[in-house]
Amino acid sequence: MLxxxxxxxxxxxxxxxxxxxxxxxNASTDGSDIYFKNRFENISFQxxxxxxxxxxxxxxxxxxxxxxxxxxxxxxxIVPENCFQKCIDFFLTHSDCGALGVRxxxxxxxxxxxxxxxxPYPTTSFYKMIGLHRLFPxxxxxxxxxxxxxxxxxxxPVDVLSGAFMMLSKNALKKVxxxxxxxxxxxxxxxxxxxxxxxxxxxxxxPDTTITHYKGKSTPYHSASYTKHFYDAMKIFTKKYLxxxxxxxxxxxxxxxxxxxxxxxxxxxxxxxxx
Length: 275
Known about the structure:
The strands form two sheets. Strands 3, 4, 5, 6, 7 and 8 form a six-stranded mixed sheet that branches. Helix 2 links the parallel strand 1 (21-26) and strand 2 (43-48). The protein is globular. It contains ten helices and eight strands. It is α/β, with parallel strands linked by helices. The protein has two domains: 1-114 and 160-217, Spore Coat Polysaccharide Biosynthesis Protein SpsA, Chain A, CATH 3.90.550.10; 219-275.
């Protein structure tokens, strides 16, 4: 079970650190509540009866948090033993750091480009959609979606961090007041990254520690659920941050719906081909 592996790695990484761990389950049907009933006595479990979404689930326990640094972590991740201490040390030496993300790899050790990202401006998203980021992976312009011009193994301020691993200082979290609950799944990490920068802090990509992320285990990529929540999140983000330019906003919303239609058609033909 991925969650158990994650919690075991958290215990090792917390050996010499005063920590508190909260697990929020959004109405799982795999018997997790029974399985974990007598395990991990020092961890607080919250078993929601319905799926309230990623943002609301995380926000629902923030009032219980007392630490100076708060980590939002996906259950399909494994952290190394020195991870937390290295991150805290970075915060202590960088007062401008509001949020910290780390280098992520998949279970095969392949680097995950979403460890650092740029804001999804219309042109940035368009270059990614048509594949220019693959042709020019180091370009500041064409590969901006994944901050391709920034080295994989060098610490840098970035626009957007991944919600799979996102550590914030308590002061920064107070300013941004947690996740925007208008998002159900996807996009909330982009929105939070935006607000951290707007509040005067920086988001840092910190590759001095690497976690394993079993990508797509929560919601399989390219499934109907993924497509719906992903494009719904992009619409929320667009309406929130392009509201001052109605023409541009409508154009981007039209592009999002076109992309959604293409994704649904691709999924249909893939399923048809497999069958």
